[in-house]
TrEMBL record:
This is Flavohemoprotein. FAD binds at Y190. It comes from Psychrobacillus soli. One of its GO terms (biological process) is cellular response to nitrosative stress. Is involved in NO detoxification in an aerobic process, termed nitric oxide dioxygenase (NOD) reaction that utilizes O(2) and NAD(P)H to convert NO to nitrate, which protects the bacterium from various noxious nitrogen compounds. Therefore, plays a central role in the inducible response to nitrosative stress. The record marks Y29 as: Involved in heme-bound ligand stabilization and O-O bond activation. Keywords: Detoxification, FAD, Flavoprotein, Heme, Iron, Metal-binding, NAD, NADP, Oxidoreductase, Oxygen transport, Transport. Residues 1-138 form the Globin domain.
Amino acid sequence: MLDAKTIEIVQSTAPVLKEHSNAIGKKFYELLFSKAPDLYNLFNQTNQKRGIQQEALGFAVYAAGEHITNLEAIKPVIQRVTEKHRAIGVVPEQYPVVGETLLEAVKAVLGDAATDEIIDAWGKAYGYIADAFIDIEKNLYDQVEHQSGGWEGFRRFVIDRKEVESDTVYSYYLKPQDGKPIPTYEAGQYLTLKAEIPGEKYNHIRHYSLSDSPGKDYYRISVKREDAHNNAPAGIVSNFLANQIDVGDTLQFSAPAGDFFLEKVDAQVVLISGGIGITPLVSMLNSIVENQAQREVTFIHATDNHKTHAFKEHVKQLAKNHSNVKSLVLYNTPTKEDLHAADFDKQGFVDLDFLQTNIPSKDAHFYFCGPIPFLEAVNRTLNEWGVAEDHIHFEVFNPIAILGGQK
């Protein structure tokens, strides 16, 4: 345990670290990659270039310091981070260099304000937090490796099928190259890809939600090809998958992970997706149809128009064939074809009036996934409606949102 003086120093200086969080994060990664360039293989390099990873680190440092005497208060954050650490292969031996570098970054940014006493206190705090993470991650590694069909590290899978779901979304059906069994998972969880792309110096790590129900002899992920737009470059990994990977090729994945999944209760469920955020929610929908035929489920999907609408016919058929399924579609920029067909329920966004008109009760469990602005808007709407906090569940892959959000 930490002594009272250390706790006092850490909690009193945490706001200072928050104020300088972006600069500390930037300096940290600059120092870290100069010391251990192989760690580039563990980080999303696109997030690095956009500054997202740096800001997330600063936020994490502040949050941990603020709650140093009660890490239980940030349990959702810890769960998300440790799940992702296990998925990408973080090991205990990497923690010391991270801690050492973090203190160097704090000292470099704060200068003389970071006294020896402050640096010593944060060093002790980091060791305390690191030990907690290492223990949790050890248990996760053990559980994954020893479950039926489980494995350690990354395993090769063959692309058994590749299907087009929309103008930009492709589904990949994955079967293990070794022909051995694979573990099941919870609807809503994800696989982690280690992409070895020709011409790229380092591996690229990406998390992709499993988009079919559990219990099959294959895994399925569905990936949106990110084209260049608004001065943003094209997605390196999504274009690699769309343009270079086909049936018969192999890819490496770690075992399913994630703390966002469909809870095993009988309550009515509302699944709300924006764009490619549909993937984990289709997994949940398929699972409900197959295993909980009496459970009422409303599936709400928001996207630009029919061209970007993945799984459109699949969800429509489920709603037609199963009385417990209701499907609602919102198009933000419908095409002339969409307007003529009138094959959607609203032009615009998910708002409180739309939910209250179509959802019988705010006592349902709400699961949602999509771009950050979409998540924030839906979350605000549910809070405005007065939905209980423990009935609100969402998935994000942006590091800052992971750290700042409730499960």
